[in-house]
Backbone:
């Protein structure tokens, strides 16, 4: 599985934007970039995903580098409820038993200060 | 929509005892996953089902762990006998079509297992 590298932790203030980076230098052309987050005492929840173009949804924006070797999850205005572990995951689309598989790393712990 | 339902929410057992976890996926989701999450770590896939067929169980410790998904809907994960190292959160997730990368997973809240 292609690997991702994320900072162990980040901090932000409430109502400020947050940029969560992810490096994936070994990404293949068919890997989708997925982001999930896990709130305390809950299972992970889907945030956003993309392949090549930047993506926006009601939760966040995903900015993908032109060479696809890195991406950034953007929370436009952090709230206390955004405090969670954020996982950047490459999802294989090439077939075989790993097809579509989600492999989690350790993620980034985001702390939001009031 | 009820989401992915797991039970029990918490379980404390003595080592060498058996334990079972139950998962009800979102209606219509044909792909079901069991993950294990150790403290401070990301979830690790144990097994993936496409309908009632286990298509990836390479990470399931088959000497003590077993799983089933009868009729391609609900699933149970069993550990027998449990060991101290099995203490973790066991997460169930479902997806409309696991192989399609544009379908996200929906996770349940998990079962926190403590083996004493």
Residues:
């Amino acid at each position: 599985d292609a690997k991702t590298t994320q900072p162990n932790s980040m901090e932000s203030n409430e109502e400020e934007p947050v940029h969560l980076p992810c490096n994936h230098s070994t990404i293949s052309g068919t890997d989708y970039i997925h982001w999930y987050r896990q709130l305390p005492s809950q299972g992970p929840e889907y945030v956003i995903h993309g392949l090549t173009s930047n993506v926006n949804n009601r939760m966040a924006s995903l900015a993908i580098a032109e060479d696809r070797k890195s991406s950034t999850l953007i929370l436009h205005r952090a709230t206390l409820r955004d405090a969670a572990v954020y996982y950047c995951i490459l999802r294989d689309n090439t077939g075989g038993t790993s097809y579509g598989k989600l492999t989690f790393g350790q993620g980034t712990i985001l702390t939001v200060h009031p | 929509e009820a989401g992915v339902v797991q039970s029990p929410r918490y379980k404390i057992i003595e080592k060498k005892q058996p334990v079972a976890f139950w998962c009800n996926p979102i209606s219509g989701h044909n792909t079901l996953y069991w993950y294990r999450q150790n403290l401070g770590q990301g979830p690790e896939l144990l097994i993936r089902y496409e309908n009632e067929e286990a298509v990836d169980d390479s990470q399931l410790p088959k000497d003590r762990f077993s799983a089933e998904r009868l009729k391609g809907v609900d699933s149970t994960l069993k550990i027998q006998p449990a060991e101290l190292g099995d203490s973790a959160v066991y997460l169930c997730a479902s997806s409309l079509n696991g192989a399609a990368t544009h379908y996200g997973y929906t996770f349940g809240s998990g079962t926190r297992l403590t083996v004493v």
